[in-house]
Design goal:
By secondary structure, the chain is of the alpha/beta class. The protein has 13 helices and 14 strands. The protein has helices at about 20-30, 60-65, 135-145, 170-175, 200-210, 225, 230-240, 250, 265-270, 285-295, 335-345, 355-365, 370-380, and strands at about 5-10, 35-40, 80-85, 95-100, 130, 150-155, 185-190, 215-220, 255, 275-280, 300, 315-320, 320-325, 330-335. A six-stranded parallel β-sheet has the order 2-1-3-4-5-6. A six-stranded parallel β-sheet has the order 9-8-7-10-11-12, with helices on both faces. Strands 13-14 form a two-stranded antiparallel sheet. The protein is globular and about 65 Å long.
């Protein structure tokens, strides 16, 4: 006879912040498992602007199921407590097992741990295990003092029913809406536009590429509704600093998208482009390149960071990088010359190892949310994966 365990999730839901998205994808898989009776406690968002109206997750059908998850009564015995929000709530709890999700983009979690009144309460369990999505990120928690065996790497995944290739007709239709011709070569980046994302490096590389290839374009999809940083802000700042490099010709071929997209629209945006580029300096996992690859386009990614965990030659060209350190934060300096070289190689189709079908097969075997959900369930039940 199967006996379900009471699982309480404390965290974020209902919006398109990466933690909330990861949480919702994970819950979808956990709800399929009869080993759990799931409850949910909402942790407040840091700002009123973070709301479903302005920042919908795009999982509308599934959000209804998540919204029905309620808090347990105080008398209910909780077997497993899972926290996924920011800052990281590392204090004890009234549960047999406690897990906390977190990322350490810079391999440093100073000032990232919650310090509220809950720290002083009495709990039946003060033992915490950390779930983090990459081996790069794991380093930061070990540096903080967590034992290596208490920091478990469970990657993020891709929903292959949402993120999938589109046909030529659909691709042409989407490009037409963006004033892009079919013979243009289009690079894409989807990110918060913060320094660690390396968008300044991408724009610098694009300005070099544009000198040689007149038919290239760059799309920047920002997350300004969440973070208040627009791609236009970044471009404007770089224009002031490098007026000779960022000519009107370069700038007129950079397309900025700031409005929120549904997941279907995001998938189609990936599929309508020719390559995804992420010359990041520091990431906890970096989901968009994996989603882009599932949509059938190759990626160019910084070497040595979190994306090494899902590197596969069928869809990744690596940007050479050197490790850097600033104010206790580790990061990678992506090589601009190598970035430009990789972008040129894609334009000229000089990469025989890139194979769309092989890439999608690799993701299907290793990085679907079904697989990730199984890893999470095994950890919750057995304390091992």
């Amino acid at each position: 006879m199967n006996i379900s365990q009471n699982l309480l999730i404390e965290g974020w839901r209902g919006i398109n912040h990466s933690y909330a998205m990861i949480n919702q994808y994970q819950i979808r898989e956990l709800l399929k498992n009869n080993k759990f009776k799931i409850y949910f406690k909402d942790i407040p968002f840091p700002t009123p602007e973070w709301n479903k109206k302005n920042n919908s997750s795009g999982l509308e059908d599934f959000e209804e199921k998540i919204s029905k998850l309620t808090q347990p009564s105080n008398k209910l015995k909780i077997d497993i407590l899972y926290r996924i929000s920011f800052p990281y709530r590392m204090y004890g709890g009234n549960a047999n097992k406690i897990f906390v999700f977190g990322t350490s983009e810079y391999q440093n979690i100073d000032n990232m741990i919650y310090k509220g009144k809950e720290l002083n309460e009495k709990y039946i369990n003060k033992s915490i295990k950390v779930i983090t999505p990459s081996n790069w990120s794991k380093v930061g928690f070990i540096k903080e003092g967590f034992k290596e065996n208490d920091v478990i790497v469970i990657p993020c995944g891709v929903d292959l029913k949402i993120f999938k290739p589109i046909n030529k007709e659909k691709k042409s239709k989407i490009r037409k809406k963006l004033n892009i011709d079919n013979d243009h070569f289009v690079f894409l980046n989807v990110s918060a536009m913060t320094w660690n994302k390396g968008v300044d490096k991408l724009i610098a590389a694009f300005s070099e590429i544009k000198k040689k290839y007149s038919f290239v374009k760059l799309i920047l999809k920002d997350q300004s509704n969440l973070y208040g940083i627009t791609a236009k802000n970044i471009i404007s700042d770089l224009k002031k600093r490098f007026p000779k490099e960022l000519t009107d010709e370069v700038l007129s071929n950079i397309i900025v998208i700031s409005r929120n997209l549904t997941l279907k629209e995001l998938s189609e945006l990936y599929g309508s482009c020719d390559a995804y580029v992420s010359p990041y300096r520091a990431e906890g996992f970096n989901m968009p390149p994996l989603e882009a690859a599932a949509c059938g386009i190759p990626t160019i990614l910084t070497s040595g960071g979190s994306t090494d965990d899902y590197y596969h030659p069928s869809f990744v060209l690596k940007i050479e990088g050197k490790k850097g350190l600033t104010a206790g934060n580790n990061y990678i300096k992506p090589n601009l010359e190598n970035l430009v070289s990789n972008m040129s190689a894609l334009i000229e189709k000089r990469n025989s190892s890139l194979k769309k079908d092989e890439a999608i097969s690799f993701i299907e075997k290793n990085f679907t949310w079904k697989i990730i959900g199984k890893k999470l369930s095994d950890l919750f039940i057995n304390d091992s994966i």
